[in-house]
Specification:
Elements (H helix, E strand, L loop, with lengths): L7 H9 L4 E3 L1 H9 L5 E6 L8 H15 L3 E6 L21 H15 L9 E4 L1 H4 L4 H8 L4 H5 L2 H8 L6 H4 L1 H12 L3 E5 L3 H13 L6 E5 L25 H9 L6 H8 L4 H12 L5 H34 L9 E4 L5 H7 L6 H9 L3 E3 L2 E2 L15 E4 L3 E7 L1
Parallel strand pairs: 2-3, 2-5, 3-4, 5-6, 7-11
Antiparallel strand pairs: 1-6, 8-9, 8-10, 10-11
């Protein structure tokens, strides 16, 4: 039987670091200090195939509970994913297919395993119970919630006010998420601050099903690479948990200086005492933000790839990006005479599309052996054999003319 750790300093770390709000904090701390083995729920709808550092904020919190000996429940919302969480949306979302959901579920579990000991995790799927609800049971569930409560949600209220369609299935989403907590008998549910309404719905429904209401812990939403919007795949401002080490390191280095302290707190395992010192030194101009960011990039890369890969990524960044040198090992790409540079860039994943490739060339971000390519119509010739194509700051290919 797993021993529950009740060290007050560790308990306070769980309840305070990287935490926005705990409802009810005094109650939850008392239970944790008493050595109760709590059931800690995190639900994620598999609406995409990528987990990023924004997801990792709450996954790290889940790991902290796991490290203290509590039972972690990783709930995959395979049923609710087909409806879509309406939180923050101004319109209905296109439903996912069974194939999409299955593929994303497998990807999520694998990526969550980077942070969690999945052998000790209770993995559940809410289709186990939601897909089996009879009409009678559904009526009982809806009888425990009022229209007035649901209509108070800011996004629902806005859509009703603007006469934008709000389907009954979207209206039922918070109820389904709350019912998950009833079935799982969750003691604590985690989520981002944008999930607060849904998490509190779990408390309400548990009370009305004569269960002890779960405590709720919300984590802040992590800003993405642009520094304003929350990290999101749809906004392409994210760093995925499976990001290649050099790319992960480089993306962290591209953060604005204002986000350094926040990323240290939410994305690393550095002590809060050290983080406070870093913040103070930055504020007092005692350190160069670039040097601090190198430490941040190293610490984040180390979590997901280990020290050796983090060392290599740091060396790569300092040598290739800072000093603008060509790396010792460069992937080759076989091309034919008259192939266009644009086609090669798109084929090699150096640009998302031909249009994106054109923009990169027009902006001066593409070069051949250090000479900037200015003509978007540039084609491969025999004299280019062996030369190094560079796109952006860290993408290199050695041209091999067939």
């Amino acid at each position: 039987m797993t021993k529950i750790i009740t060290d007050e300093k560790l308990v306070d770390e769980v309840l305070e670091r990287g935490t926005e709000e705990v409802i009810v904090k005094e109650h939850l701390k008392k239970r944790m200090m008493a050595g109760e083995k709590l059931r800690i729920k995190l639900g994620i709808d598999p609406t995409g195939s990528v987990l990023h550092l924004g997801h990792a904020v709450v996954l790290k919190k889940l790991k902290q509970f796991q490290d203290l000996g509590h039972q972690v429940i990783f709930l995959i919302g395979d049923f609710t994913a087909k409806i879509g969480d309406p939180t923050g949306r101004s319109s209905a979302r296109k439903p996912l297919t069974d194939e999409d959901v299955k593929k994303n579920m497998e990807s999520y579990q694998k990526q969550a395993g980077i942070m969690l000991d999945m052998e000790k995790v209770e993995v559940r799927y809410n289709s186990e119970w939601l897909a089996k609800l009879s009409f009678k049971e559904l009526i009982v569930l809806t009888s425990k919630i009022t229209y007035a409560q649901m209509a108070q949600r800011a996004d629902f209220k806005e859509r009703i006010k603007n006469d934008v369609d709000l389907s009954m299935q979207e209206f039922m989403y918070p109820a389904m998420q709350g019912y998950d907590s009833v079935v799982l008998k969750a003691d604590v549910e985690l989520g981002g601050t944008d999930q607060k309404f849904n998490l509190l719905m779990g408390r309400q429904l548990q009370k009305r099903y004569d269960q002890q209401p779960q405590d709720v812990l919300t984590c802040p939403l992590l800003e993405g690479l642009g520094g304003t919007d929350k990290m999101s795949k749809s906004l392409n401002n994210y760093i995925s948990l499976t990001e290649e080490p050099n790319s992960m390191f480089g993306k962290v280095m591209s953060l604005t200086d204002e986000l350094i302290g926040r990323y240290f707190e939410l994305c690393t395992e550095i002590s809060m005492d050290e983080i406070e010192k870093i913040k103070k030194d930055l504020k007092d101009d005692k350190v160069n933000p670039r040097d601090v960011k190198i430490k941040l990039a190293y610490e984040i890369t180390k979590i997901y790839h280990g020290e050796e890969k983090a060392d290599e990524a740091k060396e790569y960044f300092e040598k290739v990006i800072s000093k603008k040198e060509v790396p010792e090992i460069v992937a080759s790409v076989e091309v034919s005479v008259e192939d266009s540079i644009i086609e090669i860039m798109t084929k090699e994943g150096l640009a998302k599309s031909n249009g994106d490739a054109k923009r990169k060339i027009e902006q001066g971000g593409v070069s051949l052996n250090g000479e900037i390519i200015k003509d978007i119509q540039t084609k491969i010739s025999k004299v280019m054999n062996g030369k190094i194509l560079k796109v952006g700051k860290r993408e290199f290919r050695k041209i091999v003319v067939k």
